[in-house]
Specification:
There is one protein chain. By secondary structure, the protein is of the alpha+beta class. The chain folds into two domains: about 5-75, Arc Repressor Mutant, subunit A (Orthogonal Bundle), CATH 1.10.10; about 75-105. About 70% of the residues lie in helices and about 15% in strands. The protein contains five helices and three strands, in the order ααβααββα. It has helices spanning about 1-15, 15-30, 35-40, 45-55, 75-105, and strands at about 30, 60-65, 70-75. A three-stranded antiparallel beta sheet has the order 1-3-2. The longest helix is centred in the last third of the chain and has 31 residues, at about 75-105. It is elongated, with a radius of gyration of 19 Å. It starts with a helix and ends with a helix.
Length: about 110
């Protein structure tokens, strides 16, 4: 049950489009809040709110450079989602293989 709740919370966190956009920007490289604000349609308080949620979920960490907080992506929690999705990949792969075979037979 604990693992289910953890997955559920992570799915809820990444379900929000602005947070996925922030994750995508941090995937490229670490960034400051100011950079994230410039590259999004959100205000500074909006970006900070989403970063707090991502940090609480374990998806980002921070470091300090002078006066700036630099945010870094922690992809490890996403591995949990990848592991959860694995059986479904096989399911869809099997379905697509069956569709391909059906279409080949139709020709």
């Amino acid at each position: 049950m604990q693992n289910e709740k953890k997955h559920s919370n992570l799915f809820e966190v990444i379900a929000e489009a602005n947070r996925r956009h922030i994750i995508e920007m941090l995937r490229v490289r670490p960034r400051s809040v100011g950079e994230l604000v410039k590259r999004s349609s959100l205000s500074q308080p909006g970006v900070s709110k989403h970063l707090r949620i991502l940090r609480d979920a374990g998806l980002v960490t921070t470091s300090r450079e002078s006066q700036k907080h630099i945010y870094h992506l922690r992809a490890e929690p996403l591995r949990e989602i990848d592991n959860w999705l694995e059986p479904y990949r096989q399911y869809w792969s099997d379905r697509l293989d069956a569709l391909e075979q059906f279409l080949d037979e139709e020709e």
